[in-house]
Amino acid sequence: MLIIGLAGGTGSGKTTVVHQIMTELPDTEVGVISQDSYYKETTNLSFDERALINFDHPRSIDFELLVKHLKALKAGETIDQPVYSFIQHNRTDDTVSTHPRKVMIVEGILILTNPELRELFDIKIFVHADSDERLVRRLKRDISERGRDIDEVLNRYQNTLKPMHEQFIEPSKAFADIIIPNDKYNTVAIDVVRAVINQRIS
Ligand SMILES: Nc1ncnc2c1ncn2[C@@H]1O[C@H](COP(=O)(O)OP(=O)(O)O)[C@@H](O)[C@H]1O
Ligand SMILES: Nc1ccn([C@@H]2O[C@H](COP(=O)(O)O)[C@@H](O)[C@H]2O)c(=O)n1
């Protein structure tokens, strides 16, 4: 199994890049795990308390479960990947049965900050976009897809997202083997990554 870790700030385009990479690749051969699925379970908290969580700090992620699941996939086992709700700020009761594939892509803002997880990656990729571009994308996406309003996004950006990006996410770029500039759609970089994957699965 080839395990690719794909990091980058919020709105850098990680999810989009993963979809672009997977286009034309057989989905029986390539699977995806999202770090967002592994936000810690916080059913003990009220909705208002959950909304105050710093979701850009590494401690908000259940890295232990993520590492356990990745190791299980590597050992040929099927896992139940949690499903996260950005509306409820919590895991749902659903899971997605995820089978091991020849190539597994793990994507998320903080995945290169965790040493144990980094050890499992054969290729580490960081998707870069400028912070103003990322904020614009984040605003549009969170309002249209994640049930947020402009105040929520901007408050979170100022209070936690920007400082955490500078403290944890941007420095983790140093661990990357490949950096994809993604202020504009970058078809050349996508082709290169797809070629590496094709080589592995052919
Ligand atoms: N290169 C790009 N140029 C313009 N918009 C983009 C680009 N990449 C992604 N987007 C858009 O930006 C938003 C955030 O992208 P997404 O892939 O969800 O980012 P991430 O997963 O890193 O948070 C989406 O609406 C997506 O369509
Ligand atoms: N309940 C939550 C959980 C996370 N976030 C934000 O999501 C961002 C990470 O996801 P991307 O798809 O953008 O990489 C992160 O910046 C968290 O602030 C949230 O808003 N609400």
UniProtKB/TrEMBL annotation:
EC number, UniProt record: 2.7.1.48
InterPro entries, per the entry: P-loop_NTPase, PRK/URK, Uridine_kinase-like
Domain Phosphoribulokinase/uridine kinase: 3-187
SUPFAM superfamilies listed in its UniProt record: P-loop containing nucleoside triphosphate hydrolases
Transmembrane portions of the chain: none
Pathway participation: Pyrimidine metabolism; CTP biosynthesis via salvage pathway; CTP from cytidine: step 1/3; Pyrimidine metabolism; UMP biosynthesis via salvage pathway; UMP from uridine: step 1/1
A GO molecular function held by the record: kinase activity
The reaction(s) this protein catalyses: cytidine + ATP = CMP + ADP + H(+); uridine + ATP = UMP + ADP + H(+)
Domain of life of the native organism: Bacteria
Cellular compartments annotated: Cytoplasm
Keyword vocabulary terms for this entry: ATP-binding, Cytoplasm, Kinase, Nucleotide-binding, Transferase
PANTHER family with a match to the protein in the record: URIDINE KINASE
Family of this protein: Belongs to the uridine kinase family.
Protein's UniProt name: Uridine kinase
Species: Flavobacterium frigidimaris
